[in-house]
């Protein structure tokens, strides 16, 4: 299976072949675009997003309930099950005290949710596509000597920049619209 940086490098070579970009520039671009993608994806993970007091309260209640159930289950397990787990490499009784402590602390943690907004503070951020667009734009400009631009026509949008961005998005499996990201990138640049 081909690695993501290799797919990006191949896509850049194909779409920008007429500029005969040096291999080291393509490899550097592919590596940095991949890193931007990974950082954007990690920012999109559910645990990295803000949450309301009610969502956090539900999570802590569920955590408290499950740690309590697990502690009770471990405490009531019979020797054959404990021996089987031990034979597989897990001393279940070693988990009993930490689960009981987690159950207790979850109750205390709920009182520390003061100050969080009552409603969800916003929709899920999706930074991967903008991050990838920004770094791809920088390398597009380095390789071609042209600012990332697009041609808008009543039949659609086109141009080398859009073709490059589409290919990079495809290599990374990004479902965002290259056209919308190119437009948003242009708007961000204009504000600076």
Describe the structure.
The chain is mainly alpha-helical and 192 residues long. It is built from 8 helices and 2 strands. It has helices spanning 4-15, 23-44, 53-76, 79-87, 93-110, 128-144, 160-172, 178-191, and strands at 151-153, 156-158. It has a two-stranded antiparallel sheet with strand order 1-2. α3 packs antiparallel against α5 (93-110). The longest helix is centred in the middle third of the chain and has 24 residues, at 53-76. The radius of gyration is 25 Å and the shape is elongated. The two termini are 41 Å apart.
Count of distinct strands = 2
> Roughly how many Å apart are the termini?
41 Å
> Number of helical runs?
8
Low-confidence stretches: none
Question: Major beta sheet, specifics?
Answer: 2 strands, antiparallel
Task: Give a brief rundown of this model.
The chain is mainly alpha-helical. It has helices at 4-15, 23-44, 53-76, 79-87, 93-110, 128-144, 160-172, 178-191; strands at 151-153, 156-158. It is 67% helix and 3% strand.
Comma- or semicolon-separated keywords:
192 residues, mainly alpha, 2 strands, 67% helix, 3% strand, elongated
Q: What is this structure's SSE topology?
A:
Layout: H1 4-15, H2 23-44, H3 53-76, H4 79-87, H5 93-110, H6 128-144, E1 151-153, E2 156-158, H7 160-172, H8 178-191
Antiparallel strand pairs: 1-2
């Amino acid at each position: 299976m081909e690695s993501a940086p290799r797919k990006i490098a191949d896509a850049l070579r194909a779409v920008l072949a007429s500029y005969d970009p040096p291999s080291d520039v393509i490899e550097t671009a592919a590596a940095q675009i991949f890193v931007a993608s990974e950082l954007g994806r990690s920012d999109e993970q559910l645990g990295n997003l803000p949450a309301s007091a009610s969502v956090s309260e539900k999570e802590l209640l569920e955590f408290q309930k499950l740690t309590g159930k697990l502690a009770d289950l471990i405490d009531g397990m019979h020797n054959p099950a404990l021996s089987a787990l031990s034979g597989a490499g897990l001393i279940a009784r070693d988990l009993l005290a930490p689960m009981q402590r987690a159950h207790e602390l979850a109750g205390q943690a709920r009182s520390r949710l003061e100050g969080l907004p009552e409603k969800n503070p916003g929709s899920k951020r999706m930074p991967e596509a903008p991050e990838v667009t920004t770094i791809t734009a920088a390398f597009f400009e380095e390789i071609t000597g042209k600012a990332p631009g697009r041609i808008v026509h009543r039949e659609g949008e086109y141009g080398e920049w859009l073709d490059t961005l589409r290919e990079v998005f495809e290599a990374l499996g990004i479902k965002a619209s290259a056209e919308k990201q190119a437009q948003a990138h242009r708007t961000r640049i204009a504000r600076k």
